[in-house]
Write a structure and sequence with these properties.
- The chain folds into 3 domains: about 45 residues, Uridine Diphospho-n-acetylenolpyruvylglucosamine Reductase, domain 2; about 120 residues, Uridine Diphospho-n-acetylenolpyruvylglucosamine Reductase, domain 3 (2-Layer Sandwich), CATH 3.30.465.10; about 110 residues, CO dehydrogenase flavoprotein, C-terminal domain (Enolase-like, domain 1), CATH 3.30.390.
- The protein is built from 11 helices and 14 strands.
- The longest helix has 23 residues.
Length: about 290
């Protein structure tokens, strides 16, 4: 067994310095639910584990009606799920976070870790995209923000540059008469990877009849999660009737570029992208109308 170094810095700058000094041989650990499995299976050759849980900036969790939600990259999913302002304002994000593994895993796993794995099937990324989240990152060259829609650039790859860490997510406050929803399809009832996933976020007029803004994202059907702009445009100005929902579903089916594998054929995944798009929109609509 190869020797393994372990560090638990308490400041963000110290973590960045350690990570930069170790190059590709360091592994970042928030909850460790993916990193430790990858190390054990031999998928990741790590000589130095850097524990991020003691860094205050990565553990921030706050909500302000004017500024929205700040979610540190190391905040555990169950902590987020128990945060009442987030449950009320960002339903899609909570639904995704509560699907990551078992109850025990959720006490360790974080949204930051889920996103940084770069999986197009990650359960939180579609929700972050439709909610307009910004990913705050910091590295040797300073701090910058990356829109959630641009954070993943390929399977297992993110837009993080050498030495950069994901610090937090910043999600704007939801407008009045708006709501979101997230759904995924899996072969088993729990603890499985999404075959297809979809998130929707809609805003209604004051009378609750007309859609004034909408965004739709789908996952596990392309090398990266997709913001389906045509689906959102199909909803705006409509009463979210069956014709509008079908137009959005058609846009998702057109945008999907899945592969066939042991969990589903590309034809089936394409079809399900449309099905889940309609259902996620309907879920968000019910919530926006107070159902």
């Amino acid at each position: 067994m190869k020797p393994l170094e372990f560090s638990a810095p308490t400041t963000l700058n110290a973590a960045i310095k350690l990570y930069s000094a170790n190059g590709g041989g360091a592994g970042l650990m928030a909850g460790g639910t993916d990193l430790l499995v990858q190390m054990r299976s031999g998928r990741a050759e790590i000589g130095h584990v850097i524990d991020l849980k003691r860094i205050p900036e990565l553990n921030v969790l706050s909500y302000d009606k004017k500024r929205g939600l700040r979610l540190g990259a190391a905040v555990a999913c169950d902590v987020l799920g128990a945060f009442k302002p987030a449950k009320a304002a960002y339903a899609a994000l909570i639904e995704g976070a509560e699907l990551i593994g078992s109850t025990q895993i959720q006490s360790r796993a974080s949204v930051g870790g889920n996103v940084c794995n770069g999986s197009p099937a990650a359960d939180t990324i579609c929700s972050l995209i439709v909610l307009g989240a910004q990913c705050v990152v910091k590295g040797p060259q300073g701090k910058r923000e990356i829109p959630a829609r641009d954070f993943m650039v390929g399977p297992g790859k993110t837009a993080l540059r050498k030495g950069e860490l994901l610090v937090e997510f910043r999600i704007p406050p939801p407008p009045a008469h708006s709501a979101s929803g997230y759904l995924r399809f899996i072969p088993r009832n729990e603890m499985d990877i999404a075959v297809v996933s979809a998130a929707a976020n809609i805003t209604l007029s004051a009378n609750g009849k007309t859609c004034t803004a909408a965004s739709v994202a789908i996952g596990a059907v392309a090398p990266t999660p997709l913001l389906v702009e045509a689906a959102g445009k199909a909803l705006v100005g409509s009463t979210l009737d069956e014709a509008a929902l079908e137009a959005a579903a058609a846009a998702s089916r057109k945008a999907a570029r899945p592969i066939s594998d042991m969990r589903g054929t590309k034809e089936y995944r394409t079809h399900m992208a449309g099905v889940l798009t309609k259902r996620a929109i309907a879920m968000a609509l019910q919530r926006a109308r107070g159902a």
